[in-house]
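Just scan this pair:

***
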Amino acid sequence: MDPDAALMLRVKDGDLQAFEALVQKYQHPIVNVSYRMLHDLDEAEDLAQNVFLRVFQSAGRYKVSAKFSTWIFTIARHLCLNEIRRRGRHPAQSLESSQSQDPEQAPRQYPDGKTPSPPQAFLHRELEQKIQQALESLPGKQRLALALCQQDELSYEQIARVLGCSLPAAKSLIHRGRETLKEKLKPYLRTGAWEEPETETLPAKRCL
């Protein structure tokens, strides 16, 4: 059995330590996905809390029908899309929020174990901002597919289940999203400050 599903069954029996273990494991991935969708760290953290609240409230009805990671990311998907619909905000409206967001507060997606020099840190933050702006211009499902693709917990098959579509459709969403991002980022990446990564050298499941 999926060990996380086993933990959830313990939560169903009232084991709060099992619930805490699930929170510890999934808190950062859920915040990361939510942040990529909403581009607001406070809202992403609030949404993650709502995800775990729903997980806890659903414990009594929980049945093992899929991997736990698929189930919890599906909950996150619903809440993210509901929040975007509630705002009535177009995905491309990202420049103002990205400028007001403190870059030091943004979740660090790819720690490299090194401390960059101040110029490198500035360029890294600037590139992250450009990537975020490009992500927010994507259609909602493409953006969500790429966000989910960054999570090691999820396979392509699980991403398809979370998105509620077929495996070929999920792969198509990821491919189209990647191609669109490459086109949008080419002018910036060609300035000389950064080199565009070779897609064939990236791990098969990585999207950015």
